[in-house]
Amino acid sequence: MLIYSISELAREFAVSTRTIRYYEEMGLICPERNQNSRRIFTKKDYARLKLIMRGKRFGFQLNEIKEMVLLFDQDPTGQKQLVRTLGYGKEKILEINERIEELQELKIEMEEMMRRLEAGISLPRQKEEFQ
Amino acid sequence: MLIYSISELAREFAVSTRTIRYYEEMGLICPERNQNSRRIFTKKDYARLKLIMRGKRFGFQLNEIKEMVLLFDQDPTGQKQLVRTLGYGKEKILEINERIEELQELKIEMEEMMRRLEAGISLPRQKEEFQ
DNA sequence: TATAACATTAACGTTAACGTAAGCTTCAAG
DNA sequence: CTTGAAGCTTACGTTAACGTTAATGTTATA
Known about the structure:
2 copies of one chain form a homodimer.
Chain A: E1 3-4, H1 6-13, H2 17-25, E2 32-33, E3 39-42, H3 43-57, H4 62-73, H5 79-118, H6 124-130
Antiparallel strand pairs in A: 1-3, 2-3
Chain A binds a DNA duplex through helix 2.
């Protein structure tokens, strides 16, 4: 599909139309309008919304998400802008790495706890440490 | 250190004392009190707060976090309770796996974009897809 | 012993991220 | 042609997660 109405997008991403309008209000998306001022969403808008939703799943706030998408949106033709974008991107990648590591730790801890539970051991001392 | 005051914990976790009191208000922690009704935080409370903060970093809401910590808090002596806890834990591990995968995807995409930027290529077509 | 630093509860204020309702226009189907 | 579904704007309502203030009590220390 090449273009979407607001309700189609809302259905697709399992959010309300109000949510999408709110994202436009906040400047995270800028869909075109037809002659009757109805919003027209392109594939580009779709992709943008997908990024926004992912950011939300990761617990980022809308203004953080906005900062990210806007920064990567403008093509950094100027040398200075490019350097800035690169620095930002590398920083974000480091943050992502930290998150991945933390999640893997959490996973290991939970698996450990599951094993203990399955073995039928309460292990109050260990519990104290984890809890 | 074996016990903490509320301001010590607040400093340690870089939050306000109000935040810690709020978590108690919401039932996420239950610190003991001294004879003058001042809160006394033990190592156990410290560990609990650490878990809460991690949950926050992952974008969980306080009631979700509460559900988790409370569920793993009670030792599931009853068979039924144990089964329930095990099921919940395995579900959570699956969720964590999904998050890790999603983060790794995101990381790859961002590294890809960084490489393109460093190569000095705008790639409008690719931009459209990612953006 | 005074006094600053820290603690308590109670209560009202704030902000992000929407929900909801009203009043209007537009569009598609029978 | 009407009628119901969908869209629009405006605006007020809601909730989670605290911030802030007030009024008061406690503790440490010079």
